[in-house]
Each structure stands twice: as structure tokens, then as C-alpha cells.
Design brief:
- It is a single chain.
- By secondary structure, this protein is an alpha+beta fold.
- It folds into 2 domains: about 70 residues, Glutaredoxin; about 110 residues, Glutathione S-transferase Yfyf (Class Pi), Chain A, domain 2, CATH 1.20.1050.10.
- The protein is about 50% helix and about 5% strand.
- It has 7 helices and 4 strands; from the N terminus they run E-H-E-H-E-E-H-H-H-H-H.
- Strands 2-1-3-4 form a 4-stranded mixed beta sheet, with helices on one face.
- A hairpin with a 5-residue loop joins strand 3 and strand 4.
- Helix 1 packs parallel to helix 3.
- The longest helix is centred in the middle third of the chain and has 31 residues.
- The mean pLDDT is about 95.
- Keywords: Transferase.
- Homodimer.
- Pfam families: GST_C_2, GST_N_2.
Length: about 200
């Protein structure tokens, strides 16, 4: 399979990490979204939304949306809990991440790192909601080692992507000890070097 992705994107890295952890063979095709490479006729033929990540399988089928991709790639693996309810709790976190975490943590990071904005220019509501997401994670992780069950699942992979670099978006994890512990454990599980 071919993974069309941008290594600056946590959503794309989720797919790479799952493939690497499960030893799934793939070709990575780096896409520069800022140069309009997702807007070419060839790319739009694969993914009409013009977004990365997009996976093209050898049989010609394509799949988009990071959490849908990793859910498909990790089927029948230990990254998806066997217990149906625990798997549903994992999915609960996958949906929460895209709605209540990524739009704030990732967007603030994008504005500071890639648009060169100053922290004072960030939308205060996005910052507030980003901290609310981190606080929700801290609350959960204070009583649980991982997000769904007793082992790393796709919930942890998906939440790690932008949480490990939240500081690049101006978020201080100093009061989030359980989140910091979880970041280290999940990075180690995935074989990732600690985020700088």
C-alpha cells in the first residue's frame, strides 16, 4: 500500500506508527499540503476531500481519515481490545480526539510552528478548550494507565499524536503529571524517541 502523508501532521503520523508497530509494509509518499499537492487532479481522484492521510491499496481502493485508516489497518491486532465494550470505549476516545482535542491542540500548534504566529495571537477560546481537553485526559489517566483497557490501544495512538507536541502549540503540561507519564509509556511502546 501507499500512504500519502505529511510528516508534520500528527494525523498522518498515526498511520505510520500503526504500520510500523504492526510491521505492515508500505511506501510513504510525502505530500506538501502547503504547496497544494492535495489539490491536484490526481490526488483529488483518490480523495475528493483533498486531505492527508490517504491510503491507496494495491487493489485500487483508497481510504481516508486517520482514525478510520488505523481502525482498518489494526483490525484483528492487539491494538483493538477484544472485549466489545472496551473496543467501543476506544472508539469513544477516537471520536473525542477529532472533535474535542485535535481542533484546539493541533490548530494552536499549526499557527505557532507553521504560520509563525506569536502565542499572544492565538484564539483564547482555542487555548481554553485545548486545556480543557488536556484536563479531561489528566482526569482519566489519574485513575487509568491507558485510555481503553489495560494496554495500549488505538485510543492511545490517536491521542499521542498531538499531545506529545502540545508544548509546540503553547500548552504547558506542567500540571498534567499523569499525561506526561502516559506520553512516555506510549512513546516507548511505539518505539518513538521522546518528543522534543
Amino acid at each position: 500500500m501507499q500512504i500519502y502523508g505529511d510528516t508534520n501532521s500528527g494525523n498522518c503520523l498515526k498511520v505510520k506508527w500503526v504500520c510500523d508497530k504492526l510491521a505492515l509494509p508500505y511506501d510513504w509518499i510525502e505530500i506538501d499540503t502547503r504547496k497544494g499537492e492535495t489539490r491536484t487532479p490526481q490526488f483529488l481522484a483518490m480523495n475528493g476531500a483533498g486531505q492527508v492521510p490517504t491510503v491507496a491499496f494495491d487493489d485500487g481502493r483508497t481510504l481516508a481519515q486517520s482514525n478510520a485508516i488505523i481502525r482498518y489497518l489494526a483490525r484483528d491486532s492487539a491494538l483493538i481490545p477484544r472485549d466489545a465494550f472496551v473496543a467501543a470505549k476506544m472508539d469513544e476516545w477516537l471520536f473525542w480526539e477529532q472533535y474535542s482535542h485535535e481542533p484546539y491542540i493541533a490548530v494552536c500548534r499549526f499557527q505557532l510552528v507553521y504560520l509563525g504566529k506569536d502565542a499572544s495571537e492565538l484564539d483564547p477560546e482555542k487555548v481554553k478548550r485545548g486545556y480543557a481537553a488536556l484536563d479531561r485526559m489528566e482526569q482519566h489517566l489519574s485513575g487509568n494507565r491507558f485510555f481503553a483497557g489495560e494496554a495500549v490501544s488505538l485510543a492511545d495512538v490517536t491521542l499521542l499524536a498531538y499531545t506529545r507536541v502540545a508544548h509546540e502549540g503553547g500548552f504547558d503540561l506542567g500540571r498534567h503529571a499523569a499525561v506526561r507519564r502516559w506520553i512516555g509509556e506510549t512513546e516507548a511502546f511505539l518505539g518513538l524517541p521522546p518528543a522534543r
